[in-house]
Design brief:
Layout (H helix, E strand, L loop, with lengths): L1 H6 L12 H13 L1 H12 L2 E4 L6 E4 L2 H10 L4 E2 L8 H4 L11 H9 L8 H17 L6 H18 L3 H4 L3 H12 L3 H5 L8 H24 L8 H7 L10 H29 L3 H12 L12 H13 L5 E6 L3 E3 L2 E3 L4 E5 H4 L46 H18 L1 E4 L5 E2 L4 E2 L5 E4 L4
Parallel strand pairs: 2-7
Antiparallel strand pairs: 1-2, 3-4, 4-7, 5-6, 8-11, 9-10
The structure holds protoporphyrin IX containing FE (HEM).
């Protein structure tokens, strides 16, 4: 009997997904709106399906148990190397998000101390000063467009240290230009034509200048210049001479990838929080809470209702709406095999709106994050809510992002009031409002 069974070749069922004309329809939909394509596939095939071709063929997994499978139970089958093709050209080969263990773990151990919670107070007060100047002036353009360079300036100061903008005046513009390329749809990014004036040619030129600026900064600091340079880069340089020291290439890659992973996502988080706070009742409640506090910038991190609004903004509009992986060893999943080399996409957007996990998932309900006594209650299920990922690849900048979002919202609540004419449509690789969020801004608050 056993021998008989062994002679039968193992045939896993093919992974579900659209074929033929249905596939063409889904691809057409995905060209305009990936989430709409995922919705269409889910209606037909359930929570796990595959579609696309070549480098943009993805096995999409949408439900909680699949997240747990990929990020925890079978994590050794799924790698990060080559999983984020749109970040690789910016961050370089050694960036945390683009590498796998054991090198990933070694670098992560070196970078982690630079994000220790005790640094939060210093970040919070540096950020608050810049944000206070910003909110005192009514924005003339949509919030996202005006906020982006301010968050970049703040993030550069925190990561690369005070005075970076003065020493390297082009760096911010070059990083912004590189991110503009990475924020294009994946298909457009595959067209890497190096002809003058093309997005790729502009990207390559911006990267060369940013690289030169960063390497010059690292060398100058290693030679003893800018002793007060500080920032996350300062902490990394302080490892020199120990086992945790990083090479110049590694330092360059960490510096640029931290800035690029951090500033667009944080700008999006702030923008969505401001959108949710545009509701008059929510805004009044959040303002009353902030005004009752002691005014210290970091107090915003302990304001329960504000934290509940931010948690709800990140649930409904996760700035990084998907986690991507590359299969490093064939893996069996629900009776089908996902072969080595496959791309896997975990849709945070769908997880956070799953009616099996969330009551009234499409509605904004900050109160779902509050205990009876009004205290903020973080999610009890780590695989139902993960705007910052989960497990060994948990976002290293989550504390910084939460701090900047809280401090910006609290500063805005203290100095201004605002309202919104129309609810925007979320779009993009980093999820942002399609109209950039034009606000009616009143200083001082009415
Ligand atoms: C609201 C803002 C942010 C969101 C929503 C966000 C989201 C995420 C998510 C979902 C992951 C997991 C990716 C994966 O598992 O493959 C991640 C990883 C990462 N994030 Fe963030 N992030 C934010 C801000 C930041 C900031 C401010 C920084 C740094 C300054 C940062 C640096 C990183 C890095 C380096 C990783 C890779 C960690 C590793 O693989 O070890 N992020 N982020």
């Amino acid at each position: 009997m056993t021998e008989e069974r062994e002679r039968i070749p193992h045939r896993a069922t093919p992974f579900p997904g659209p074929r033929g004309l249905a596939h063409a329809r889904v691809m057409n939909l995905a060209g305009g709106d990936v989430r709409a394509a995922l919705d269409a596939c889910r209606a037909e095939h359930g929570d796990a399906f595959v579609f696309g071709f070549g480098p943009i063929r993805f096995h999409w997994l949408l439900d909680r148990d699949a997240f747990r499978f990929v990020l925890a139970d079978a994590a050794e089958h799924f790698g990060n190397a080559q999983a984020y093709p749109f970040l690789a050209p910016i961050g370089g080969e050694t960036a945390l998000i683009a590498t796998d263990d054991p090198e990933h773990l070694r670098r992560r151990r070196s970078v982690q101390p630079a994000f220790h919670q005790r640094l939060v107070t210093a970040w919070a007060s540096a950020a608050e000063k810049r944000f206070a100047r910003f909110v005192a002036e009514p924005p003339t353009k949509p919030l996202l467009n005006e906020l982006r360079p301010i968050v970049l300036e703040v993030v550069l100061g925190i990561l690369l240290g005070e005075g970076t903008a003065e020493r390297q005046p082009r760096l911010a513009a070059d990083v912004a230009a590189m991110m503009a390329f990475a924020n294009q749809p994946l298909l457009a990014q595959l067209l890497k034509m190096r002809l003058p004036g093309t997005p790729w040619a502009r990207f390559v030129a911006a990267r060369a200048r940013a690289d030169a600026a960063l390497r010059a900064d690292i060398r100058a600091r290693r030679a003893g210049a800018h002793p007060g340079g500080g920032g996350v880069l300062g902490v990394l340089l302080a490892h020199d001479g120990s086992d945790a020291a990083l090479s110049e290439d590694e330092l360059r890659d960490q510096a640029i990838s931290l800035v690029s992973a951090g500033f667009d996502t944080t700008t999006a988080a702030i923008t969505w929080t401001m959108a949710l706070l545009a509701d008059p009742e929510r805004q009044a409640r959040a303002r009353a809470e902030i005004q009752a506090g002691d005014g210290a910038p970091e107090a915003a991190l302990h304001a329960s209702y504000l934290q509940a609004v931010i948690a709800e903004a990140l649930r409904l509009y996760p700035p990084a709406p998907a986690i991507l992986r590359r299969v490093v060893r064939d893996v069996d999943f629900r009776g089908s095999t996902i072969p080595i080399g496959s791309n896997v996409g975990l849709s945070i957007w769908h997880l956070h709106r799953d009616p099996r996990l969330w009551r009234d998932p499409e509605r904004v309900i900050p109160e779902r994050w509050l205990e009876r006594d009004g205290a903020f209650a973080a999610s009890r299920d780590p695989f139902a809510y993960l705007p910052f990922g989960q497990g060994g690849r948990y976002c290293i900048g989550a504390g910084l992002a939460r701090t900047l979002t809280s401090v910006f919202a609290a500063t805005a609540l203290r100095h201004a009031s605002w309202s919104l004419a129309a609810w925007p449509r979320p779009v993009g690789v980093t999820l942002v409002p399609d109209d950039g969020l034009p606000l009616r801004w009143v200083v001082p608050p009415s």
